[in-house]
Amino acid sequence: MVILQSLLFLCFMGSFYNSINSYYSIFVQSSSIETNINSTNNFNTKYEPTWKSLDSRPLPTWFDDAKFGIFIHWGVFSVPSFGSEWFWINWKNGNSKYERFMKNHYKPNFTYQEFANDFTAEFFNATKWSELFEASGAKYVVITSKHHEGYTLWPSKYSFSWNSLDVGPRKDLIGELSTAIKKHTNLKFGLYHSLFEWFNPLYLQDKKNNFSTDFFVTNKIIPEMKEMIELYEPQILWSDGDWEATAEYWKSQEFLAWLYNESPVKDSVVTNDRWGINIGCKHGDFYNCQDRYNPGVLQKHKWENAMTIDRKSWGFRRNAPLEDYFSLKELIKELVITVSTGGNLLMNVGPTKDGIISPIFEERLRDMGRWLKINGKAIYESRPWILQNDTVAKDVWYTHGKTGALYATLLSWPTNNTVTLSNILKMTDKTKISLLNSNELIKWRNREKYIDIYLPSIDNKGEPAWVLEITNFHY
């Protein structure tokens, strides 16, 4: 991307025609990378338990087409709903804020396990949840099947008395949501799963042995993940909790070979990159790299920006002030930049212990859906263009639509109703420009180094972003 920007700079300094050949060459190369990522899926290959073999698996195209998903962090941590989903470890590690909270509100010698009795989920309605997620414009949903606390939201055989059927809701929460999503929506269903568990004795024993033993992985994690995949057939397996041990300890390559060769979702499942120390941003169907990852420039490998509506927590916080929630405009900006640079946005909500998705989250989801209903052509099934961020109008981001149209998303409305773009976009007599919420054609003017587009002076200024559809152009 740095090379592309440098070449564009040369263009605007008067060397356009000499530079554009090099620029076009780079575009061809980047297009071949994108084509390779989204090549026709060939799942007849037998994948070996090596990164070289596993990384050769083509990304199922549904994931690159989807662009937008909903993340759900729900568990026993939703009961205290204070601080973050890392409540247990923060409390036990002596964080004064958490110790003070427990001293002021709970009896002495209260244990974290006792919170599970109040994880009731009495208002949880899987059908309503699934309908809300579909209304948000999302194309997939990922829920925490088990966070680092070790509590599973399904009755796992490998989680005796620390799961949602044995204690708490007395329900198979994953089963209910999986069924509702598959029955009532066209959304893809995915599961988050933490490899490690803070206080599991088997894990702590392996850790004490510097991971020279693998009792936890062999007897708990591998069979637990296989059970989960076979029961619910998720289209996404979102791994986490990998950072204390190597992929060899986690037996990641062996498990992924089973997932891609033998599992019931072997042809359609996608996984991320959190499979061991130094694996992130290097191996996996798509990269997360880190929480809230948004590089802002085009990436060679498919990636995902997993982020939260609540700026400070993935789990629900009862005491979160309004300013801690991203506005709709900020969320749309995050989506637009992510998609323009080749990523998917996975936007997180944290339900309450009762199973309620609070009004602030619901409002954000429904508003996202309303914007996408009008402007979705610039997002779904789109691909990055040769230029992601306009070099003149910095608040304009591009995507290329499946029909060949170019979409320029404006994150701010110009005060004089005129947006000036880079002339890398070559207009012709047949060029047509319109806003996606209007059939009215927009006038434009070609200058030597710029293009002026005269936006209609209509009452558009309350929207979080606007999309120009441009057809019959050259570059």
UniProtKB/TrEMBL annotation:
Which top-level group of life is the source organism from? Answer: Eukaryota
Q: Which GO terms describe its molecular function?
A: alpha-L-fucosidase activity
The record's function comment reads:
Alpha-L-fucosidase is responsible for hydrolyzing the alpha-1,6-linked fucose joined to the reducing-end N-acetylglucosamine of the carbohydrate moieties of glycoproteins.
| All copies of domain Glycoside hydrolase family 29 N-terminal, residue ranges | 40-377
Keywords, comma-separated and alphabetical: Glycoprotein, Glycosidase, Hydrolase, Signal
Top-level EC class:
hydrolase
Which Pfam families does this chain map to?
A: Alpha_L_fucos, Fucosidase_C
Q: Where is the Alpha-L-fucosidase C-terminal domain?
A: 388-471
Query: What SMART domains does the record point to?
Result: Alpha_L_fucos
Q: Which positions carry the signal peptide feature in this UniProt record? A: 1-22
- PANTHER family named among the record's database cross-references: ALPHA-L-FUCOSIDASE, ALPHA-L-FUCOSIDASE-RELATED
The GO cellular component terms are: lysosome
Q: Which protein family is it in?
A: Belongs to the glycosyl hydrolase 29 family.
Q: Which GO terms describe its biological process?
A: fucose metabolic process; glycoside catabolic process
Protein name (Swiss-Prot/TrEMBL): Putative alpha-L-fucosidase
Instruction: Quote the EC number.
Output: 3.2.1.51
Write down the InterPro entries for this protein, in alphabetical order.
FUC_metazoa-typ (IPR016286), Fucosidase_C (IPR031919), GH (IPR017853), Glyco_hydro_29 (IPR000933), Glyco_hydro_29_N (IPR057739), Glyco_hydro_b (IPR013780)
